[in-house]
């Protein structure tokens, strides 16, 4: 008997769900009382969610029968009102129709709230564990939408645990297939529902909802939907008071949203800047959270007023400088990136960085051995030094006073390829500084290391190395020291001979740089003699025949040396 009653209840629920779908469709064709029908559609949608929850039950409580009967009666009356509005048949006039529509909206709202109360009392929790199967990869859009709506129903009427499980399923679906993200955004009130969950007292629901919003924020076209749904304020509150997982996801979501500078002020208005600074200044949080917070702040400092506020806060710069020495790569990288953004084109902020020991910390990242500093950290530290120090006398002086050249030379010689190239770029910048710096670099041993890069596969690397070496040997002391090592000159000549053998014009390619170096070396008597007496003179003369002006000058210089040698032999 009970089993029969259950089947009858299921049939009634399915009938009510079909009636609601039909009503919603019909209501879109009504041209009058649009605001009232919009309200009724919202109530129908809420009722649909509650009934969908009931349809998944294995067993139905007898107490639901009277409620379902009342729902069906209201839906019949609503359908009658809809058909009269479509045909503009207002029996009793418009005022009476308006009154009838208000009564209908109230009636539907009452049914929806009754379903919600029944569920809250736990009547549905035993049977509602059945979840609609997730559609396969080739499923049509309607199947995907049906699955998402089923999950949304569970989020609306379920207890906290059911809400959490539905959110987990939604997140898994969005992570696997971008179509689910689009469907979530298209179902208007679902985004608002997720935003509302950010203030949930249940930690699991809050964590999963902020993860869902993070997935959505990864799509540029959907960011504006999140902002219009009022997501920023709740995200900041999660950042302040949420769990570790919730805070991390919130920071990542804010980092995505603040890529658009227009959202920076909204974060600041909700107290986001202070919350982010607090996270960065306290050592109790995870590296992932601190790094993401630095990422958000990096986006925010693009607004000058926010940057000034941050700098004026006590110990803000010291906090970021301290983070450079973090044990975690992601914190090192993001904190350096943040400092770069803060100091860009701002001499005053750079001075603060120097006073807080920022340059010393950047150099410490380059220190070897330093197991805490990865290749990526070294690369970004070198980029920061390149961008910050050469435009500021204070930064440059601080750089040269903390054994930077020793660390740079080591990376130039022993670093990974990407680190070597970054080190070479900084070396090239240093070589453009006054003669005293170039003299120190020559004594430190930079020239032999630069020679090794003259045969690199990358043209840009060969060019940087050649220009840097040319600048160093422009100093007489360095030139003399360079010429003392027979390998240096013979190696350059060997490379030049190989270039000549490949029929490359002296005015294009690497041999142009090599000839410039040799031309500079001819100013040193010992170097000029070594070049003239080498077996590569004919190769240089052959290059001159291709009308390379630099090669012709070199041949002329070397020919004068031979002529002088002949004269000295005669007299």
Describe the structure.
The protein is an all-alpha fold and 571 residues long. It has a domain of 120 residues. Helix content is 75%, strand content 0%. The protein contains 33 helices and no strands. Helix 24 runs parallel beside helix 27. The chain is elongated, with a radius of gyration of 37 Å.
For this entry, give a set of tags.
disordered C terminus; 571 residues; mainly alpha; elongated
Low-confidence stretches are: 504-508, 562-571
* Mean pLDDT score: 85
Biggest pleated-sheet summary: none
The CA-CA distance between the termini, in Å, is: 133 Å
Number of strands: 0
Q: What fraction of the residues are assigned to beta strands by DSSP?
A: under 5%
Helix count, per DSSP? 33
If you compute it from the alpha carbons, what radius of gyration comes out, rounded to the nearest whole angstrom? Answer: 37 Å
Please write out the topology:
Elements (H helix, E strand, L loop, with lengths): L1 H26 L6 H22 L9 H22 L7 H27 L20 H17 L2 H17 L1 H9 L1 H10 L5 H15 L5 H6 L3 H10 L2 H14 L6 H6 L2 H10 L5 H14 L3 H9 L3 H9 L4 H15 L3 H9 L2 H9 L8 H15 L3 H8 L3 H11 L2 H14 L4 H10 L1 H7 L6 H15 L2 H9 L1 H16 L8 H12 L3 H8 L4 H8 L4 H22 L1
């Amino acid at each position: 008997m009970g089993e029969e009653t259950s089947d009858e209840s299921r049939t009634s629920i399915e009938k009510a769900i079909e009636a609601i779908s039909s009503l919603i469709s019909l209501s879109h064709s009504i041209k009058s009382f649009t605001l009232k029908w919009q309200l009724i559609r919202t109530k129908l949608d809420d009722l649909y969610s509650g009934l969908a929850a009931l349809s998944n039950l294995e067993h139905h409580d007898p107490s639901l029968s009277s409620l379902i009967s009342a729902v069906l009666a209201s839906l019949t009356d609503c359908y009658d009102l809809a058909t009269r509005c479509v045909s503009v048949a207002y029996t009793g006039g418009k005022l009476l129709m308006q009154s009838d529509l208000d009564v209908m909206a109230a009636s539907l709202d009452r049914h929806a709230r009754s379903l919600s109360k029944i569920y809250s009392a736990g009547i549905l929790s035993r049977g509602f564990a059945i979840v609609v199967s997730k559609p396969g990869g080739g499923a049509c859009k309607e199947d995907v939408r049906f699955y998402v709506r089923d999950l949304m129903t569970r989020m609306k009427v379920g207890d906290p645990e059911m809400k959490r499980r539905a959110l987990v399923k939604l997140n898994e679906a969005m992570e696997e297939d971008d179509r689910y993200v689009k469907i979530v955004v298209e179902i208007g009130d679902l985004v608002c529902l997720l935003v509302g969950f950010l203030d949930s007292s249940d930690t699991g629901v809050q964590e999963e909802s902020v993860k869902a919003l993070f997935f959505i924020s990864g799509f540029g076209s959907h960011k504006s939907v999140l902002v219009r749904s009022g997501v920023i304020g709740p995200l900041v509150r999660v950042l302040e008071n949420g769990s570790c997982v919730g805070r991390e996801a919130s920071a990542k979501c804010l980092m995505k949203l603040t890529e658009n500078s227009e959202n920076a002020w909204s974060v600041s208005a909700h107290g986001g800047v202070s919350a982010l600074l607090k996270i960065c200044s306290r050592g109790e949080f995870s590296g992932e959270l601190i790094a993401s917070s630095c990422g958000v702040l990096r986006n925010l400092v693009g607004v000058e007023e926010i940057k000034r506020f941050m700098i004026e806060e006590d110990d803000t710069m010291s906090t970021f400088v301290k983070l450079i020495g973090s044990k975690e790569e992601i914190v090192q990288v993001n904190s350096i990136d943040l400092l770069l953004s803060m100091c860009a084109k701002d001499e005053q902020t750079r001075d603060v960085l120097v006073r807080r020991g920022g340059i010393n910390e950047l150099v410490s990242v380059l220190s070897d051995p330093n197991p805490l500093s990865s290749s990526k950290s070294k690369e970004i530290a070198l980029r920061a030094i390149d961008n910050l120090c050469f435009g500021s006398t204070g930064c440059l002086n601080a750089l040269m006073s903390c054994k930077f050249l020793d660390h740079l030379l080591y990376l130039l010689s022993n670093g990974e390829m990407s680190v070597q190239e970054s080190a070479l770029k900084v070396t090239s910048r240093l070589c453009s500084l006054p003669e005293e710096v170039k003299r120190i670099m020559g004594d430190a041993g930079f020239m032999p290391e630069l020679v090794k890069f003259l045969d690199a596969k990358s043209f840009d690397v060969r060019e940087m190395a050649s220009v840097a070496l040319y600048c160093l040997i422009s100093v007489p002391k360095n030139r003399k020291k360079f010429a003392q090592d027979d390998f240096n000159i013979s190696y350059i000549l060997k490379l030049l001979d190989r270039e000549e053998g490949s029929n490359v014009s002296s005015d294009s390619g690497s041999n142009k740089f090599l000839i410039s170096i040799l031309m500079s070396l001819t100013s040193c008597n010992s170097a000029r003699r070594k070049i003239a007496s080498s077996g590569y003179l004919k190769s240089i003369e052959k290059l001159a025949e291709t009308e390379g002006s630099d090669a012709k000058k070199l041949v002329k210089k070397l020919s004068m040396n031979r002529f002088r040698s002949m004269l000295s032999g005669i007299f």
